């Protein structure tokens, strides 16, 4: 992750940066450094904009020279107000004011650049790209502008063009660490983690304390299976802007070396549902060494966290904590325990989550059903939309002998009716209030088909077969070019071969599904004959 840097139009010899509009997602991974230009001028007090505009338009009342001065003041006022709104996070207001300034005078590269930054932040990438290109036409030697353009192109998944823009920025000014770092992000999104590390290391050579480069370097090492460097670097998340690990001075933090005998250890909550499920596998390791394990987590996770071996107390995040002697963030366990590839394989061999006691489900699939399949096709939009449109799965939904159940709990449940598959897909959303409910329902499934999501982690943690549809740009935990996962032996991964193109993974999944279904149908016939 990185900061949105603000640079002055008149630069000093040593370039400096501020962070007026830094806002990072809870799972901080995918943002690049941006530069907005600040035009600093000293003018006499600016009159009301509407008054000046009227005066400018009224040629009878204002001579040309005075009108020009007044118009410049209007434009500067609009820009400064836009900049203030931008820095305050009022992005729509900033876009409106930048646009008004450009309508008065379109020959302003700094304003075009800032408009591009604001449009990109509001995810209007095509418009942002046009703004950047207008700025480049006016000031092609601006290295920061080319880096901004590269960031926009990367988000549009136009990776070749993004690389060309970033390398242009480096060619113009190779002393700015963010230009080098942003280039590495393109290679990361291309799943070329070794190349990405080369650029991250170059950025770190300029500034060894560059938090964003240290963070993404850690993720690259993890994606390449280098757990020693990866887990150590993963601790950098504590320094990220919106890092959810709050200070806790009530007791010392455990470093993995201190004796836990007779101690109460608090494992602290952080990041998303899927992360907490994924890292819960390490709890039994410390439970063997401590007298009592306390797990902090969000309310929705509490029922399944209670089923992890060795957990003594589960407390909802935000509630008062029980007494404890030591604490450590849950996601720091692999680092403090020194988990390597062999350890991970051993730890992940068996399921470690189960439905809460007393939760049982009875399903009534249609007659002749030999395969009950859970579906999750949509998830959160940040840092990237991982959703796979439900209608792309139509080839398998009509398969005779299979019954499909939706585990969606958000407004995407409406997709079932929207595309007309209510006869093929049973909506379980009303029965799911937490992950305990999901676990009980999943236990009744033969297969889960999911995007990269918390339910995919849940199925894997329970040892249920899960086929996961994965974006072209992989997440670090799924490694590169693998159909299996060291985290979940029951998982099979179907990866996009081109950005935003689900055709190849869905085609392969459909073929595998047909094979599985035919095998189940054949087995059922044999059983009936016996």
Automatic annotation (TrEMBL):
Keyword annotations of the record: Repeat, TPR repeat, Transferase
Residues annotated as transmembrane: none
Bias type Basic residues, positions: 8-17
UniProt key word Plastid: no
Positions of the UniProt region annotated as Disordered: 1-45
Organism: Thalassospira lohafexi
GO molecular function, one term: glycosyltransferase activity
Gene3D superfamilies named among the record's database cross-references: Glycogen Phosphorylase B, Tetratricopeptide repeat domain
Name of the protein: Glycosyltransferase
Domain of life where this protein originates: Bacteria
Pfam entry (one): TPR_1
Positions annotated as TPR repeat: 75-108, 109-142, 143-176, 177-210
